[in-house]
Amino acid sequence: MNSFSNIWNHPKTSVTGLLIALVTIGGVLSQQGVTLGNAGSGTVVTLVCAVATALLGLLARDPVEASSPVASAAKLGAWALIALLLPLPFLGGCSGSTVAQDIVNWTPSLESAVATVDSIAALLAPEDAPVFTAATIGFDAASNLLDTQAKAYLANPSASLLAQLQTQIVVLQQQVNAALLQSAKIVNPASQQHALAAVQAVATIVTALLALVQSVSSKAAVAQMAAASTIKLASVQLYIDQSHAAEIVAAHYGEPVELARMQVAQAEVSEAQAGF
Asked: Has residue 68 got a pLDDT over 50?
């Protein structure tokens, strides 16, 4: 009887628990390929998860005074709970078309980050500039090809075009990881700082794009992608500024930095577990 009385006495907690259960079950069903039918251009499972996510977000907006320590803790706890259950927007039950559109949406930020990389050589010591340029020379072509493939898939979704996306995102990821390692070897402190900061911005976006593609790939495809990823995330994680990464993701998705920071960390764990 206490269980039933608790439901009525703590309705907000009960609703939150129910929504969490819906999202958790929906995530499992999506991973298993269970759709429960179509809803517009998506699936019923995706729609239910999206509605539950939105309601969880509303519940996280605690009306208690913002200056209250209890309110701050409650709000942070709510965001943490949502972050743990709901990975980055590009990880949760997306369709291939949604992923392709999100990759295209990331393109301006990626182009800007790559342009910064292209211009950073002028700020480096004379002996460091050629090394940095050589390490990052493939960024333009690889990012442009990824954008072209995403637009092609968006226009005509197919298994073959998805396979191209899977291959290309790993190619770009490997180029960025190699550039991070190369930048870390620069001895001049000022040059190293400029080089790492520029490549880190590209790395954050590429990690997001990898998670996007991973979210709609089969286990066999993910395993194949991970096998081609020879420079692992663990090798370069030391050179990633987590705070800056969270700011980039938060700005793109229009969400609190606190939430983005936890989501970025979760996405990195997910990719590491997959073998990247």
From this structure: no
Contact call for residues 15 and 6 (beta carbons, < 8 A): no
CA distance 97 to 92: 14
Q: What is the pTM of this model?
A: 0.69
What amino acid occupies position 75? K
- pLDDT by residue (tens digit) across 204-245? 999 999 988 988 899 999 999 999 999 998 899 888 888 899
pLDDT value of position 26: 55
Q: What is the residue extent of each domain of the chain? A: 2-85, 96-274
pLDDT, position 75: 46
Which three-class secondary structure state does DSSP give residue 26? helix
Q: Rounded to an integer, what distance in angstroms lies between the CA atom of residue 106 and that of residue 78? A: 27
Q: What is the CA radius of gyration of the chain?
A: 21
CA-angle at 145, arms to 216 and 113, nearest 5°: 90
> What ranges in the chain are assigned the alpha helix state H?
2-9, 11-31, 44-59, 69-85, 96-120, 129-136, 139-155, 159-184, 189-215, 219-228, 233-236, 242-253, 257-274
